[in-house]
Amino acid sequence: MTIGYYICDMTFAQKIINFNEHLTYTGLALPPGIGIMNPFAGDMSQAETVRAIGRAFYQKYYNDEERRHLILGINPGRFGAGLTGIPFTDPKRLRTECDLHFNIPDAHEPSSVFIYEMINAFGGPEAFYKKIHINSAFPLGFVQMKNGKEVNYNYYDSKALIDAVRPAIIENIQKQIAMGVYTDVCFCFGTGKNYEFLNKLNQQYNFFGKMVPLEHPRFIMQYKSKSKQKYIDKYLEAFHSV
After folding, report:
1. Which of 35-49, 69-83, 101-115 has the lowest mean pLDDT?
2. Of the candidates 214, 198, 194, the residue with the CA atom closest to the CA atom of residue 206
3. What distance in Å separates the CA atoms of residue 230 and residue 226, rounded to the nearest whole number?
4. 12-240: which CATH number, 3.40.30.10, 3.30.360.10, 3.40.470.10, 2.30.40.10?
5. What is the dihedral of CA 58, 62, 67, 69, to 10 degrees?
6. Do you know which InterPro entries this protein is assigned to (predicted)?
7. Could you tell me where the DSSP H helices lie in 12-43?
């Protein structure tokens, strides 16, 4: 995976935009049947729209040289970052919560609903993104054909895929740190396999002082929606503690 480079006097926005727009996977071969989803490449008109979204979003919320704490999700999904290029931000939230309007398909991602309810409880996008930078363990998505339909796939869903992308995940974390994130604490979306993998990696490489796991937004929306406020409060307590 190649991810570009950073110049010391770049703003945080410029570093993220540079990261995204040079993001390609050139690592080990993936297992049969697993494909890469790269919203910044592929269909040129769609990719250019995604790049334009990224420039507008990051220049709006990250156009400074302040440090932030990092959240690592799993890998992007088709209906959130797969369409907008912004982690946990589907097209609807991009318009209604971020006031950024682009000609992209309307889509609804439950994880994005939770994230922006939490962000609004934090104080809104400007306050939240001033303190937090969201990325993923693996910054591109994976897809698999199932019953004739393309579906999301997680990097940890097979040992063969983990083995193939492990070097790229290590490189990705190193690049996120190089952007200027704090290294005392890294938050992790997912208290199961994502946390287990990232925590073991952190114990080996000492990227961060500690990894703090938080229940994944999709898990909350799918299985714990009646207790959603409890998880919002848990997120806020975690973020306000650093």
Report:
1. 35-49
2. 198
3. 9
4. 3.40.470.10
5. -60
6. Phe_SMUG2-like, Uracil-DNA_glycosylase-like, Uracil-DNA_glycosylase-like_sf
7. 12-21
